[in-house]
Design a protein that fits this description.
Number of domains: 1
Distance between the termini: 30 Å
Strand content: 15-25%
Strand order of the largest sheet: 3-2-1-8
Shape: globular
Helix content: 10-25%
Order of helices and strands: EHHEHEEEEEEH
CATH superfamily: Metallo-dependent phosphatases
CATH class: Alpha Beta
């Protein structure tokens, strides 16, 4: 099973203030996000992290606590990532082409054929960033849980077609 998440900001105490997160400190925030992740993700699941995983130089202290096999997309705060990490991740899942980028895009790979774009970066910002079959996968909009692919499928059903969809 696939899960998607973004903007965990592990170890980043200031994100609590910037995003009005309901935690007293970074340790409490980290524990909550890790616990909720492990509540829904098994060791055999694949988790796509859509950027801003941590500001720390060594992410392994967090990765080793998380269930699943992990794929990381570079965000604006992922200084620990070298150039071998993805800027954009793409895969066809259940016949649907999925594109993950840290940033919301106007047009993305295969959007004219109905592909979906998953993004982060805006935290709990307004939905004005959505343009068709797009979804903010940040932890701030999902009660600090990752999104399952089934949740995403359900959400996408309610969204309008992509603006450049070829009909």
């Amino acid at each position: 099973m696939y899960f998607f998440t973004s903007d965990e900001h592990y170890g980043h105490k200031n994100v609590i203030k910037y995003c009005n997160r309901p935690f007293d400190n970074a340790k409490e925030m980290d524990k909550t996000i890790i616990d909720r992740h492990n509540e829904v993700v098994s060791h055999n699941d694949t988790v796509i992290h859509g950027g801003d995983f941590t500001l720390k130089s060594n992410p392994n202290e967090y990765i080793k606590q998380l269930n699943g096999q992990h794929v990381f997309v570079r965000g604006s705060h992922d200084k620990w990532m070298n150039r071998s990490y993805h800027e954009i991740w793409e895969k066809t899942i259940d016949g649907i082409h999925v594109v993950v980028c840290h940033y919301p895009m106007t047009i993305w790979s295969r959007s004219h054929y109905g592909s979906w774009q998953l993004f982060g970066h805006v935290h709990n910002g307004p939905n004005q960033y959505r343009n068709g079959k797009q979804l903010n996968i940040g932890v701030d909009v999902n009660n600090f849980y990752p999104f399952s692919f089934d949740q995403i499928k359900k959400s996408m059903g309610d969204l309008p077609d992509n603006i450049n969809l070829v009909k």
